[in-house]
Amino acid sequence: MNWFHWLANPARFMRFAARLQPWIMALGLLTGAAGFYFALFASPADYQQGETVRIMYVHVPSAWMAMFIYVVMAAAAGSFLIWKHPLADVAAQAAAPVGAGFTLMALITGSLWGQPMWGTWWVWDARLTSVLILFFLYLGYIALVNAFDDPERGSKAGAILLLVGVVNIPIIKFSVDWWNTLHQPASVARMDGPSIDPSMLLPLLLMAAAFKLYFLYLLIVRMRGELMARRIRLLHLSDVS
Amino acid sequence: MKCFFVLVRRDLSLALRQGSDAAMALMFFVIVVTLFPLAVGPEPGVLERISSGIVWVAALLAAMLSLDRMFQTDYDDGSLELMLLTPVPLEVLVLAKCLAHWLTTGLPMLLIAPLLGVFMNMQTEAFPVLLASMALGTPVLSLLGGVGAALVLGARRAGTLVALLVLPLTIPLLIFGVSAVEAAVTGQSAKAQLLILGAMLMACLPLAPWATAAALRQAAG
Predict the structure, then answer these.
(1) Distance between A95 CA and the closest CA of chain B, angstroms
(2) Does B157 touch chain A (CB under 8 A)?
(3) Would A187 be classed as within a structural domain?
């Protein structure tokens, strides 16, 4: 909690983020390169799906990120509404387009994977539909935040919408267990350990780590950009008055 | 409790005295449904097949149209601020507003739905299930719609925005509402779908007014 409040000072956050940024980039490039190597060359093709299984190494991490970023944004919205944390709202707004991008990527790669495997681009099953709803929630949030002349009003309305939309996250997570669908059930995060072979699990986890670092990197870039834009706006305003 | 009924009565008399507002959503509902036989052709088989989906989608869209007047007039003339100042919890007042909204839009749509079912060649055996699914579903629309209507107070193009925000959240309602009627049409029991709709109503009843009240406080304060 102390650390959380320590970062609440924008100037301090800017210095901290600037120092962190190159490390995140280096680590992300490293895990990304290793992940791509294992995913494309050093992992076996599936005995049923053949080479198309490699879509998994992009599809699954994107889908994880789509949900992860929404939870991060909802947590930020909560701390913005409860403790009025000044950076939480900046973080939520900075993360929204990235989350929408990952959701779109999960939908597109899933569709590309579904065509050879299920014989169809799209089915209206619970998992696909709930992820599509998640995509609409991201877009709705972005639209709502930008719909007010007073940015403060937009942030607060958006934060409440984010918290309302959280109901969708458990529905996405458990949709494959609650309904019998074409989409396969969970195979990594299970009570009795992952049911996926280690040779495929390693690249999957590497890619997941790379995606997470990429998100963190983009988040820092976008947050620093937004904070600098606010500073410029203030300078302009003080020039005018 | 007295405040609750006073507010419901006030909203109802407001809606009745400027009756056109409440009637517009209902007319929209009827017109959207009548467009479909003209658009897809009047073959009874096709119409019967899509009837439950059309009625439900039209009800969703009509409800979206009626949402902007839920809090907007109170926000404009300042009565919302008076509501915030009363010692009664805002959540209770929100529930009253939602009930009044349902009585002026959801209930009329529910009453006219069987007529539209006849238009669309829906089997008469499916009517009780259609009514039951809409009786459980339209209050959820008013409750979820309340959250959206409160969030967009003071926004630009609020009417379009509220539909963008609320429609994704109503997709589960649409899925189970339609599948309940489909089950009844094919002669199966619709109990499971109706129970899920009931569960959604039970979940929204305490949670949605809470979020709506939070949004109203942000809008007014």
Answers:
(1) 19
(2) yes
(3) no
